[in-house]
Amino acid sequence: MPLPLIYHEDYSPEFPADHRFPMDKFRLLRDHLVDSGLTRDTDLLRPDLCPPEILALAHDPAYIERYMGGELSREDQRRLGLPWSEALARRTVRAVGGSLLAAEQALEHGLACHLAGGTHHAHYDHPAGFCIFNDLAVISHYLLESGRVNRVLIFDCDVHQGDGTARILHNTPEAVTVSLHCEKNFPARKAESDWDIPLPMGMGDADYLKVVDDALNYLLPLYQPDLVLYDAGVDVHKDDALGYLKLTDEGVAARDESVMRHCLGRDIPVVGVIGGGYSKDRKALARRHGILHHSAQRVWQSSGCH
């Protein structure tokens, strides 16, 4: 069977073309993966909307209602940085459903990747940093509370700290939060993850990959999770508009393969979400995000998953 990849046409709704957030990158990523021969559109798995009762496992029901009704306060709108629309609200809930489907596919087949996800700045009762609902926290609570897993480990390699995830899951010891992030970057006020690994500005491939290997060699045997949620943000790339690290395409690919091989080598299912990535060259950005899926395909073909 093909590598499970999750996508939906809702992911790139109409959006201001000059906005800082590259909303069209999800559609362009799908196009890139199809055009490059990695997948066919008919093979992509389409998720359902995430039910509100599952969203509410990680979010205040009153906040969910406010956002879905377009009734955020001015302060919350400022924190979020995205204009509200019904299409964006639907996209947001659909994308959480996509991450949930990806996690279920990973538990069944060992490996799966989403063409979206990684909204790690969303908090229990408010949005932040282009993130509305926190798919990583929702998945963690859902799988733990449904008994599908006993422990989940979130390995967040986005260049920005996963502050929302850390705060939502702070009192959930069965969900281990790990954040590798540039120490001098958004958010200014950091949360406390279970494991924070701050990285100096300008770090390149070799030093970064050693940190990843060392972290996984220590943390995976220590916690022995039933699932790893991997946030494969490409804002660590040297050409990213909002990141301050210096990884190359080859470095990002090596990181992604390393994470997946570490997990699968210990018989731990892993799901990849794309996380952050910012560039005015949207097609180049889509190709950069696609490094995750191409890396996953190589691992899939050689690992005996399925």
TrEMBL record:
Keywords: Hydrolase. PANTHER family: HISTONE DEACETYLASE 12, HISTONE DEACETYLASE HDAC1-RELATED. Residues 19-282 form the Histone deacetylase domain. Belongs to the histone deacetylase family. InterPro entries: HDAC_classIV, HDACs, His_deacetylse_dom, His_deacetylse_dom_sf, Ureohydrolase_dom_sf. GO terms for molecular function: histone deacetylase activity; hydrolase activity. It comes from Pseudomonas syringae. GO terms for biological process: epigenetic regulation of gene expression. The keyword Hydrolase applies. The keyword Flavoprotein does not apply. This is Histone deacetylase superfamily protein. Pfam families: Hist_deacetyl.
